[in-house]
Input
Amino acid sequence: MLAKQVGEVDKWLADKHSHVFHQVSQRYGYLRQFSPAFIEAIDLKNDAETESPVIKAAALFRKMNKEGKRKLPNDAPLGFMPKKVRKLVEKEGVISRRDWECSLLTAIRDEIRAGNVAAQSSKRFGRFGNFFISCDLWAARRDAFFTRAGLPISPEDISVYLTNRLNLAYDNFLASLPEKTYAAVNEDGWTLSSNKAEKLNKETEEKLENLTLWLDDNLRQIKLPELLIEVDNELHFTHPFLSPVQPIVRNAESICHIIATIMAHGCLIGPYTMARLTDGITYHQIKRITNWQLSEEAQ
Output
């Protein structure tokens, strides 16, 4: 059963890659206007010991553009593309440069999104290690940092430092315990105080119970998508997420697509499952809205 499910997932991924490839291939003339500048500007890195096939292919792409070559070498890397796409790129031993470039652009997107490669100097798609200062810079600032923070510089002093801090915290708590009215510590453990004035008499408790039952009977039942749509009709919180190319006039279909995408991430459903649960929106639409409209600036 598990093998069958894994096979179905692999088939779905292969179909997805080939579908994206066809979409990119149809727009090759437009993409070619800026793809050389894009490949020249983007600096791809990976943490593995062996260089990623995508990085090798991007280096070849960059070199061919500089030298003005139109024909791919016979040893052009093909390992970055799925087998199903490779059959479309290489036919009878001949590699189509057009299809090779389209496959490379698609692979760069997928590899960055999967975290296999990183775009240097990118805030969103850079390596996690880029957020740390260098070891040399840390060595120069280390002692001053620990002194300013009041922390021990030597690792051997950490145990004594933490023990003293814990003892001091206990001493301060026990010294102020008689003044605390909301909590106390005795042989039975922690005891929280209660306000006697908050205790209700029997008549008040009955009224409260009747009110609770009335609210249960009269409270409106509404599903989360309907609630988000109602709130958006009042507050227009989806407005910053509209595509820049869309008109200012609110379109019901676009709003519903944005709300479905927000729910896919906010409810931890995921784009793929959300598309299967929702009519009228596809996985690719959710991913496009995620990548291009739910940006940091819009949020």
Summary: The CA atoms of residues 54 and 104 lie 7 Å apart. The two ends are 42 Å apart (CA to CA). Residues 12-131 form one domain.
